[in-house]
Amino acid sequence: PSSCPFCQGDSVITVQLTEEDKVGDDVVFYLVFTGSTVQHCTSTRKINPGSLETISPGHDCCETVKVALCASREGHPVLVVAEESFQFVQDEAYDAAQFLATCAGNQQALNFTRFLDRSRPPAADVDFLDEKVALAFRHLKLPAEWNVLGADQSLTENVPRETLMHFAVRLGLLRLTWFLLQQPGGRGALSIHNNEGATPVSLALERGYQKLHQLLTEEEAREPDSWSTLSHTVHSGDYSVKHHRGLDVYMLTAEA
């Protein structure tokens, strides 16, 4: 069975067709992933007569699922061409996102993460970390009451404390900062001072993160191009539709 980090999705999957599966241009192929609680249906892009490409879905749990290659032709019933198993595995990015999500409001844990700042990883490593952790956050099942500032809503903006936004800005994580801004408490975190008197906005300015500072201060700031070109998701009730712009493929996810 093939495998994929289940939390992120957006990995390229290549499907090799057998000689008998190679058909005319009027046939459309889909992959259907059936898990224990959700089902994903992805369109495919034909690379050549014998190969297809699509994008792996971001799954909701670590498990082995059934994946079916289906062929559709106008005026004909949908055919299941082949079936295989596909394993979604947990990875470090998901562990990191889960850790950070549970640390919102935990001052001891948030202060502990500041040791990463001293190591100052290379820009390429930061960009890789940013993309992977932000994608993992997108697939976390955050509780309805989850807040960037933690569960204690009695704290005011005047109480100095470390926040998840400080963490993301300190490391220059542009995509994670964008994600946190869209969550409850995200905008409120921008005006909170930590024990050194720094806000996320002043940290971005102090460190020369121009794009990050612009993201935090401009009301009409758009989603970072480096991420928005990857995929766009629209949610509607129990369904979501994702368009991966790079490959121009679509994915429908629904509760099974």
UniProtKB/TrEMBL annotation:
Domain of life: Eukaryota
GO biological process: adrenergic receptor signaling pathway; positive regulation of canonical NF-kappaB signal transduction; regulation of Rho protein signal transduction
GO MF annotations, alphabetized: MAP-kinase scaffold activity
GO cellular component: actin cytoskeleton; membrane
Protein name as it appears in the record: AKP13 protein
Native species: Geococcyx californianus (Greater roadrunner)
Lineage: Eukaryota, Metazoa, Chordata, Craniata, Vertebrata
Gene name in the database record: Akap13_1
